[in-house]
Amino acid sequence: MHPQTVHTIDQLREVIAAVRRAGKTVGLVPTMGALHEGHLSLIRASKAECDCTVVSIFVNPSQFAAGEDLEKYPRTLASDLDALAGCNVDMVFVPAEEDVYGPQHATWVEIGSVAEPLEGKRRPGHFRGVATVVLKLLNMVTPDVAYFGQKDYQQLLVIRRMVEDLDVPVAIHACPTVREPDGLAISSRHAYLSPAGRQRALVLWKSLQLAAELVEQGQRRADVIIERMQEVILSAEDAEIDYIALVDPETLEPIEKITTRTLAALAVKIDGTRLIDNCLLG
Ligand code: PAF
Predict the structure, then answer these.
(1) Ligand 1 atom 5: the closest Cα is on which residue?
(2) 282 confidence band (pLDDT: 50, 70, 90)
(3) Which protein residue's CA is at the shortest distance from atom 8 of ligand 1?
(4) Helix residue spans in 50-115 (DSSP H)
(5) Is the confidence at residue 153, as pLDDT, over 90?
(6) Which of 60, 167, 243, 262 has CA 20 to 30 A from 2's CA?
(7) Mutate to test the pocket of ligand 1, among 93, 134, 138, 178 (most ligand atoms within 8 A of CB)
(8) Are residues 39 and 67 in contact, defined by beta-carbon separation less than 8 angstroms?
(9) How far apart are CA 66 and CA 57, in angstroms?
C-alpha cells in the first residue's frame, strides 16, 4: 500500500501535531525524488531511530544554477511512491512549488566559507538554494532528526553549519555513500548516462581508491596524488575534470601534505553528465 501522501503545509502540520500528541519522535528524509538505494538507506536509518518517518519529495528549483538540469531532472513520483510502499514510511510530503516559494518569497540563507569552494565555486547559488529549502522543510516538518548522505559531503557540512548557526532544533545524521557492487556511487543523475557512459563513470571510484592506496603506501604529497587521480580519470575517453581536490574534511581548505584525515573530492563530466564523489583518506 502507498504511504499517506500529503501535499499542503497545513495538512502536514495537522498530521505532525497528531504524531507529537502521541509522544512520537519524527525523522525527516529530504529528497528530490527519483529515489534509489541511497535514499532508501536514509529511510532505513530514520526508521531504526525515529517513531515516525517523513520523506519529502521536492525538486527544488532554487538550487539549480542557470543552464543546469532543472528541466530534465527525473520526476518519477509514481515509481517513487511504489518504492516507498515497500519501506513502510509513515508519510510522504510532496509540496507544490508555489507553496514552497510564494510569489513574495525574498528570504535566503547564505552560508559562509564552507559553501564557497568545490561545488560552491562551480555552481553559483547552489548552496543558498539548498540551505534555504532545507531550512524551510525543517520548519515545516519540525523533525527531531534529519538524514543526509555523505555522497553530497559539502551539502552535509553546509547543513550542519546552518543548523548550528541558526539554532535549528534538529539533529543531523549522516549516512555512508551507497555504492553499486562495482563501486559507483549511486546517483539520480545516472538516469542520464548511456550504458557505456555508466561503465566509464567507474573512473571516479577507481581514482578515489587509488588515492586511498597511495596514502596507505605512505604518499603524503597532495599534488602527486591528484596527478595520479587525474591519469585514472582521463583514461575514460570523454571525461572532463571539473575539479579533483584534497581538502580538510571540516573546513574544505586545500591540503598540500597529508598528515591527518583528508577528504578527496571530485566532480567529473562523463557523457556530458556531471558526477561527484568523495572519500576520506587516512
Ligand atoms: O540532496 C538532495 O537531494 C537535495 O539537495 C535536498 C537536500 C533534498 C534539498 O533539495
Answers:
(1) 130
(2) confident
(3) 31
(4) 77-85, 97-100
(5) yes
(6) 60
(7) 134
(8) no
(9) 22
Predicted TM-score (pTM) of this structure: 0.98
- The mean per-residue pLDDT over the stretch 14-41 comes to 98
- For the domain 188-277, what is the CATH code? 3.30.1300.10
Report which protein residue has its CA nearest ligand 1's atom 6: 31
The domain ranges of the chain are: 4-175, 188-277
Q: What is the pLDDT of residue 159?
A: 98
Ligand 1, atom 9, residue with closest C-alpha: 130
Q: Is the pLDDT of residue 2 over 90?
A: no
* Residue at grid coordinates 516538518: 141
Pocket of ligand 1, beta carbon within 6 A = 30-32, 60, 63, 130, 133-134, 152, 155
Which option is the CATH number for 4-175: 3.40.50.620, 1.10.600.10, 1.20.1510.10, 3.30.70.3450? 3.40.50.620
Pocket test for ligand 1, best of 130, 141, 157 (most atoms within 8 A of CB): 130
Going by pLDDT thresholds of 50, 70 and 90, the confidence category of residue 94 is very high
Residue 107 pLDDT = 98
Q: Which atom of ligand 1 is nearest to the CA of 130?
A: 9
Q: Looking at 36, 39, 105, 126, which residue is catalytic?
A: 39
> Phi/psi zone of residue 67: left (φ > 0), alpha (ψ -120 to 50 degrees), beta?
left
- State the pLDDT confidence band at 257, using cuts at 50, 70 and 90: very high
User: 43 CA distance to ligand 1 centroid (A)?
Assistant: 14
For residue 136, what is the enclosing H or E element? Answer: helix 126-141
- Alpha-carbon span 67 to 229, nearest angstrom: 28
Which tens digits make up the pLDDT trace of 199-237?
A: 999 999 999 999 999 999 999 999 999 999 999 999 999
HSE-up of 166 (CA within 13 Å, CB side)? 20
Ligand 1 centroid to residue 131 C-alpha, Å: 9
Residue range 36-51: average pLDDT? 98
